Amino acid sequence: MDSTVPIVIAGALVGFAVGLTGMGGGALMTPIMVMVFGVNPTSAIGSDLAASVFMKPFGAVVHQRAGTVRWDIVRWLLPTAVPAAFGGVFLLRALGDGDDLQQRVKYVVGTALMLAVVGMLARMWLDRRRTAADGADGEDARVPVRPVATLLIGLVGGVIVGMTSVGSGSLIIVMLMLAHPRLKANHLVGTDLVQAIPMVAAAALGHLLVGDADLGLAATLLIGAIPGVLLGSLVSSRVAGSTVRWALVVLLTGSGLAMLKASSTVVVLGCLAMALLAALTAVRDRRSARAGAAGTAEPAEAAEAAEAAEMAGVPGPR
């Protein structure tokens, strides 16, 4: 690299997005390194995983101190996630070598990015559905773990992470939500962050063994990523998470389609479709908020009228 400054800036932006949304950085950092900085896809994957090993503990420590980690779920994830992430590296190498391998990896990463988009959309939809059905009180921090489903999540998620570095914060958390639909959102994030540390470490080790990870590049990314994560975590309570997530959906859609060698027209149309969906969702949310505010205002007005009538000596409605 001629200059490390752009890489540091990219790391800071990705770290900020991770801290702000809880989303894994692989879905952003890997395509940035490939498409912007011209890094080979396999090196981008290995370097991103190496950087993530040091970045994820910052969020995990916060959740551990807050008591939002379900260690029983973590214990059922790791027996399959760790070996699957390590094995995913060698499964990737089985796709070939040389330029053919790099091209095939682009397709694999592009597919993983599109799966991440689907995962983010599914997560937002599940969040809305759960809130509408149960409200915040419908969540439970003590839902029982589902061992078989959790082992399968670790297996599938580990393979995808080992092959692409995408999925530790986007796909796995959606699968956990599907398997444990009433588990509190902050417990989902905390549990996913903690289990991702050994899983990502196993994948990074595999890439180191096959010579894919560039530790110098990973260290450069961390210079910007670590303060970015901390700043994003501080800002997360002041910025609408839905706005940021929709921006990421648009970005990932464009990146995924580009990695899949889609035409410029298809890339633009895909991004516009997601932006339109975001706008329609925002309009719907505003209408729902207004309807809810009107619904709560009517009982309040009735109570005030009854109180005024009672003070005037007129019987109120019973």
Anisotropy-based shape: globular
**Radius of gyration, Cα only, in angstroms?**
23 Å
Give the distance, in angstroms, between the N- and C-terminal Cα atoms.
77 Å
Helix/strand/pairing class, anyone?
mainly alpha
Helix-residue proportion: over 70%
Order of helices and strands: HHHHHHHHHHH
Oligomer: single chain
Number of distinct beta strands:
0
The overall average pLDDT, rounded, is 81
Strand content: under 5%
- Helix segment tally: 11
Q: Mind describing the biggest β-sheet?
A: none
Which consecutive residue ranges, at least 5 long each, have pLDDT under 50? none
Q: What does the model show?
A:
The mean pLDDT is 81. The protein has eleven helices and no strands. α3 runs parallel beside α9, α4 packs parallel to α8 and α5 packs antiparallel against α10. It has 318 residues and is an all-alpha fold.
Characteristic terms for this protein:
single chain, 318 residues, mainly alpha
How would the blueprint of this fold be written?
Layout: H1 5-21, H2 26-35, H3 41-66, H4 71-93, H5 98-134, H6 147-164, H7 171-179, H8 185-209, H9 215-235, H10 241-259, H11 264-311
Q: Quick recap of the structure?
A:
The protein is mainly alpha-helical and 318 residues long.
